[in-house]
Amino acid sequence: MNVIRAEVLGYCMGVERAVRKARDALGGLGAEYSRVFSLGPLIHNPCVLKEFSGMGLSVLSPEDLSLADGGSAVVIRAHGTTPQVMARLKEQGALVLDATCPRVLASQRRAAEWAARGCTVFVAGDRNHGEVTSICAHAASASALKSDAAVVVQDADEARAARVPEKSVLLAQTTFSPSEFETISGLLLEKNPGLKVFNSICSATLELQKSHLNLKGKCDGILVIGGRNSANTLRLAQTAASICGKTALIEDASEIPGDFFTLGTVALTAGASTPESLIEQVQHALESNADSVR
Q1: Which are the catalytic amino acids?
Q2: Which one of 7, 195, 267, 279 is least enclosed by Cβ atoms within 10 Å?
Q3: 8 Å CB contact between 168 and 144
Q4: In terms of Cα–Cα distance, which of 238, 224, 233, 228 is closest to 266?
Q5: What are phi and psi of 57, to 5 degrees?
Q6: What is the rounded CA–CA span in Å between residue 12 and residue 131?
Q7: What is the pLDDT of residues 241-292, one digit of tens each?
Q8: How far apart are CA 180 and CA 213, in angstroms?
Q9: 14, 276 in Cβ contact below 8 A?
Q10: For residues 244 and 266, what is the distance between their CA atoms, to the nearest angstrom?
C-alpha cells in the first residue's frame, strides 16, 4: 500500500499555541495553581481532550465560571471569548492565560472598531461556533446598537434574506469555507455595493483546502482525521467526498474502514485540531496491516 499525505494537514498555529499554553499551565498544577481549566473544550478533538483530562485539565463552561476562583488558571482557547467572560474571570481572581488565536483577536478588534463607528457587523460563519460568538460580543460591547450590532450569516439563503444597512462591514470566521464566503459576500454586495468586505479567513485554512484539492486523481481513497465536532474537519470531509468516491472521516486508527486496507493508494488529511501523533498512528496502521488484509 502507498500512503500519501496532503501537503498541509493537522494543527494550525492557533491550536498549537493553545495546546502549548495548556501543557505549560498543567506543569504548575498543585504547585502554582490549585486547578487548571480550559474555557470550553480546548480543541475539537476527543482524543486530545481525553489526554488532557487525564493530565488534570478541567473544562469550564460559561454557566460554571464561579468555579474559577483565586489560585486557579483558565486557558482561553483559540476561539477566544467575550469581553464579559474575560472581565468576570479576572474579577474572581483567576489567572487568565489567553490563547486566543492572533487572527481571531484581529477580527474581534476590527468588529469592535467598526461597530463603534455605528456600522452593522456581518459575520460569515457558524452561528454556534465559539469564535463567531466572541466576535459578535466584541461588536455588541463597542456599539450603541447593542443587539443589532452583529449579524451572523451562515449560508446563501441567510444572505439573501438579510437586510444590509448602508453602514455595514463583513468579516469571516477564520475557518469558514472560502467558497461559501465568496457566495455570501457577493449576495450582500448586491444589496449594498458600499459594504466593506474583510476576508478574514485564515491563510492556513486556505492552504489546507488547497492542498486537499490537490489530492484529486492521486489516490483510491481519502481518510480525513479529526473530531466529528470540528467544523473545519467536517468541511474537509465534504471536500474529500467531492473529489474521491471513497472517503471516510475517522477520529483515530481504530475507526479505519476495513476496505481501506485493500486499496492501492490512500491519502491522509486532517483537521486543524488533529495532532501529528494521531496522523502517524493512522499511517502506521494502514502500512502495517495492509499486506495481512490482502
Answers
A1: 131
A2: 7
A3: no
A4: 224
A5: -80, 125
A6: 15
A7: 999 999 999 999 999 999 999 999 999 999 889 999 999 999 999 999 865 5
A8: 16
A9: no
A10: 11
Q: Per residue in 23-78, pLDDT tens?
A: 999 999 989 999 999 999 999 999 999 999 999 999 999 899 999 999 999 999 99
Are 78 and 17 in contact by the 8 Å Cβ rule? The answer is yes
Distance CA 68, CA 39 (A): 10
| Secondary structure (3-state) at 121 | strand
Q: Hey, what's the cell of 176?
A: 469558514
Mark 19-49 as b/e (b = at least 16 C-beta within 10 Å).
bebbeebbeebeeebebbbbbbbbbbbbbbb
Which residue carries 474571570 as its cell?
A: 89
Alpha-carbon gap, residue 164 to 76, rounded angstroms: 33
CB 237 within 8 A of CB 249: yes
Per-residue confidence band for 145, with pLDDT thresholds at 50, 70 and 90: low
Per-residue pLDDT tens for 156-207? 999 999 999 999 999 999 989 889 999 999 999 999 999 999 999 998 878 8
Q: What are phi and psi of 272, to 5 degrees?
A: -70, -10
Q: Is the separation of the CB atoms in 75 and 38 below 8 Å?
A: yes
Query: Do you know the residue count of the chain?
Result: 294
